Amino acid sequence: MTLPISFEFFPPKTPEGAAKLRGTRAQLYTHQPEFCSVTFGAGGSTQEGTFAAVKEILAEGVSAASHFSCVGATKATVRDQLAQLQAMGVKRLVALRGDLPSGYGAGGEFQYASDLVAFIRAETGDAFHIEVAAYPEIHPQAKSAEADLQAFAAKVKAGANSAITQYFFNSDAYFRFVDDAYKLGVEVPVVPGIMPITSSTQLMRFSDACGAEIPRWIRLRLQGYGDDVESIKAFGLDVITDLCDQLRNGGVPGIHFYTMNQAGPTAEIIRRLAPL
Ligand code: FAD
After folding, report:
1. Does residue 133 line the site of ligand 1, with CB under 6 A?
2. Adjacent-strand bridge partners of 86
3. How close is the Cα of 99 to the center of ligand 1, in Å?
4. Which of 3, 40, 104, 187 is 20 to 30 Å from the Cα of 110, by its Cα?
5. What is the CATH number of the domain that holds 225?
């Protein structure tokens, strides 16, 4: 049996970025992803870009998932966007609360992703396969690990079909999370999100913001490489391939790659894992 894989992209901001992303997708399609997803900016910043990239993926004959965040949104705008996505032929959503960019006030008619999932189900029935986000190392704003797990279970019970995790480097955190969620009655697939390591500074910045822990040994090794990009990439490929291998041996239902719109690192990890 082959392990299902999926790829995540962010919407390009320029025509050059869009052209480069087409090339990235063409390379990654050779690995036959189950679907490709496109992230969604809060406050409408990249929403048009998201829909445009999703349209391109569908036109390329590949299943596309649109990320969809609800922070600051009204029911009327969400209803309108869901209708647009249905008209485009989108059948898969990654339903999120999202984060407001600094400078935006709160407001909006949705508080949590669970509210969005329930709304999508009430408005569109089974039109969409709904993915939600999971946090094996605990969402940074959660009141406690237990509260976060309960919030995850509530999101699934509101109607999610499956989940994708925030990236992590410690497979124990993932397996513990899945076991604990199962004890709360969550039986949907929880697919690990995998972030290839390509740059030390970018990884440190992202990880601080999203609450993903970089183990001390990885952090110190990366710091030790300084500006030696080739060594960082070589080390990153070893570490992430090993992580994927551990996850595969533990029976994960699939692997979702945060490609950062680059084909090379993700393709190399898949090549090293072959046959998946
Ligand atoms: P929620 O599930 O609503 O959780 C948010 C916080 O509220 C958590 O701390 C949770 O514990 C708490 N909470 C939830 N329900 C309750 C409740 N009933 N009572 C009390 N507390 C509660 N961001 C984007 O802007 N665009 C994207 O495209 C995007 N894609 C992502 C894809 C994946 C796979 C992941 C893992 C994250 C993604 N994010 C994206 C980031 C995400 O939007 C942020 O992590 C955001 O802060 C939380 O969104 P959520 O859907 O997980 O929120």
Report:
1. yes
2. none
3. 8
4. 187
5. 3.20.20.220
